[in-house]
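S1.2 Input.
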Amino acid sequence: MHRVLTSAVCVLFFAIPARAQLLRCIEDSPERHGQPGCSVLADKPIPSPPPHAAMWHIDEFSSLAEAKQAEGPNSVAFEAFGSAWLYTIESDTSNHHGGKHRATVGPLPLRQATPYSIQVLVAYFQPGNFSIVHTHSGPEAWWVLEGEQCLETTKAGIRKHAGEGAIVDEGETMRMVGIGTGPRRSLVLVLHDSNRPPATVVDNPPPLKSCQ
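S1.3 Output.
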């Protein structure tokens, strides 16, 4: 059985040491105040279909004002982890929009003739924190700034370290796990169907593959 999450809530996770704590991926999560959490920072419709061979392009700026000045119809500017960032969905990744190029993740597996929205999330996990099992109505992608993570799916466990990115297809059942010895901080993109909720909780999930 699947349970739909609203557009403002994407992923739930909780810490297992000592006393279990349930946290929600919301606009003003504990991550915004330096604590483990997952924050939804924006959810912006793309006005036209994403380009062929669409890539997630990540640029870093010295100020939010500079990032916002570079923002276009297929991009979103925001602040996280002490920097200003610009997410852009594009096929040409040679233009850094006046910022510092940090990563390109893709190509993103998209459906033709589907309206998409860019949902911007950032996450801070400690080892042992994990999300509930869920799916998305479009591809989800990560780029890890610090630490290590394991994405458990029905097909494989996907382990990524700082400086690495990953993509999971629309509809894949998954759970994110903080692993390693220190905090995990990551930039997250959900390029979801604009006519559907970004995420759905899976109440009775199938077995998932770990990173062990």
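S1.4 Remarks. Confidence is low (pLDDT under 50) at residues 4-22.
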